[in-house]
Write a structure and sequence with these properties.
Nucleotide Exchange Factor Grpe, Chain A, domain 2, 16% strand, alpha+beta
Length: 187
């Protein structure tokens, strides 16, 4: 049996000089940083407030967009109606001229009369298809909203404010008066 010398060789010193890693990890595991306590109730309340704010903003944006959409639809309909009304106003003198031509004709069997009558009926059908209607005239009670009185006639046989003659036919588009009727009113 060999006896161990009391002296240590340099190789042994190098081997023994490595630090003991196990001891250091054990020391670190014994000391934990201080734990901070989290107030979960206040965190939940803050998140609830944020959610409520986001929901409120979303609802406002949705309502604003819905109002925008409805307003745009109304504006488009109004623009369309105004365009139709302007077009009809420009066509009404043509309708008036057709009516004058038909009422002035003596020979209703003439080919020219029949042609004018066909064009007048075609234009009248187009206007009816566009919801254009003639306003009530002779025999109706005078209404200043739809009639324009240009003359008064004194006749005791007729009633008060009764239309006796229609000088120029009035028209309406849907519920809007395009042109009031020019009429003579009794009494």
């Amino acid at each position: 049996m060999k006896h161990k010398p009391d002296t240590v060789s340099s190789e042994e010193v190098e081997l023994n000089s490595e630090p003991d890693l196990q001891d250091e990890t054990n020391e670190d595991s014994d000391t934990f940083p201080e734990e901070t306590e989290i107030d979960w109730e206040s965190v939940a309340n803050e998140k609830d407030k944020q959610n409520a704010d986001l929901i409120n903003r979303l609802q406002r944006n949705m309502a604003e967009f819905d109002n925008f959409r409805k307003r745009t639809i109304r504006e488009k309909a109004s623009i369309y109606d105004d365009g139709v009304k302007d077009t009809i106003e420009k066509l009404l003198p043509v309708v008036d001229n057709f009516e004058r031509a038909l009422s002035a004709a003596d020979d209703k069997e003439n080919g020219l009369y029949k042609g004018i009558d066909m064009m007048f009926r075609q234009l009248s059908d187009i206007l009816k298809g566009m919801d254009v209607e003639a306003l009530p005239g002779v025999g109706e009670t005078f209404d200043p909203n739809v009639h324009h009185a240009v003359a008064h006639v004194q006749d005791e046989t007729l009633g008060e404010n009764l239309i006796t003659e229609e000088l120029l036919k009035g028209y309406k588009y849907k519920d809007k008066v395009i042109r009031p009727s020019m009429v003579k009113v009794a009494n």
